[in-house]
Amino acid sequence: MNAAIPPARAPKRKSRPSENGGETVLETRSARHQEGQHLRKILPRSAQADWTPLPERPDPVALLVEQGQRRIPSLLPVRYARMRVSPFAFLRGSAIVMAADLAHTSSAGPMVQSCGDCHLANFGSYASTDGLAVFDINDFDETYPAPFEWDLKRLGTSFILASLENGLSDIQAHENARIAAASYQSEMARLAPMSPLEIWADRIDLAAAIEDFSDKHTRKAVKARLEARLDSARAHFGLVSFDKAVPKLKVKPPLVMRLPGEDATIREAFDRYLATQPPERATLLSRYRLKDTLFKVVGVGSVGTYCAIGLFATADGETLLLQIKEAQESVLAAHVQGPAFANQGQRVVAGQRLMQATSDIFLGWTHTNTAEQPGKRRRFDGANKQFYVRRLKDSRLAAIGTDVAQEGLDDYSALCGRALARAHARSGDVAMIHGYLGSGDGFAEAIANFSAIYASQTRKDWRDFNAAIDRGDLPVAS
Fold first, then answer.
1. For the segment 102-140, what is each residue's pLDDT rounded down to a tens digit?
2. pTM for this one?
3. How far apart (Å, rounded) are the C-alpha atoms in residues 359 and 128?
4. Quick one: which of 318, 414, 416, 446 has the fewest CB in 10 Å?
5. What 3-state class would DSSP assign to 397?
């Protein structure tokens, strides 16, 4: 069994006391790079390929059932139906399973703010405040401090599974996982000599990144789609209609629905969010009023959590769409030491601000204290929930990432590896990680080998999951 190195045992930086006996002196970039090189003696890079399931490995179906107890019961059949589609869909919905497995893999020591659910579908494009289309990680529900390797291993596994489902060979699937890790390694090498301020400001201009795609067809097709979708926000993402200049959200049953009995709960949460904003954002938001709310089922792993959209409008009918999403404890929290948050929405917001180069100005967190009404049966239980709030993502622009993946997984894997390295570099020790990774092929090959092994385990888990459904152990929506 591989023994993970928990944060308490992670190699500590050598430092010397300052002359006044206060804070320790910061180490130079060169010294931290050498410490990273030393970590190779503790954990060879080739050992990153190792993974063997524990004899007493928790049953994946049991983990999902336990997690489902904290979800909306009526939506669990939808979640399981989405996970049943393919091994990759199962991976997307089973972050809790892989987190438990990664906790028993070896790690070199450097910690980062981890995405926690790092697969290829959780990357995408969005418009920055200056109108530039940037590419980045776009899902942070499970974000938490963790060994830097964990995100890479989950990302590589997703490329193995997606490649095979797209009809590619085992060799090409392995190569796509290797490309993601090699791109991460190359980006860390580029960032390592930069100052913290330079790293913090670094971002990926998607239009410029497209120009570097190796496949001419992919480059041309994705570029055309990006140009066509950059102005899609003006269409309100297809969710808003106007009746005599009065905006209203569109209902799209059964997954985008109006629940009048829950409207008060969501309005309470939005009111608390508005009341706790800093002065500059409060001034901006004071120009709008909440006009309408809808409940929306999103993603795969998120299905069953409490999620709604709020339509805000000015007196002249100009609109702002905010999403409120339930935040539960990260699947990583049971396996690593990390900060404690009174509100899990704050955990998500803090993680997103740490990892994203261009973050949403409306990010915030809130909660509800709505009590149950005696004798009333609720479809959703919005009482005592913790949420984070963000501007609703432009799904058409975000889907550019999916389009790239469909056009050419090799180009997309390189882009995702680059984005992940940039996100990790903001919170982790870039010089130390670069020192450990080095410039050879050993680390990337090891991550690809791990990904292939774990993808096989995921396919087995998916078959067992389907068997549980066939036995009637898990409910599935038609």
1. 999 999 999 999 999 999 999 988 877 777 888 999 999
2. 0.89
3. 8
4. 318
5. helix
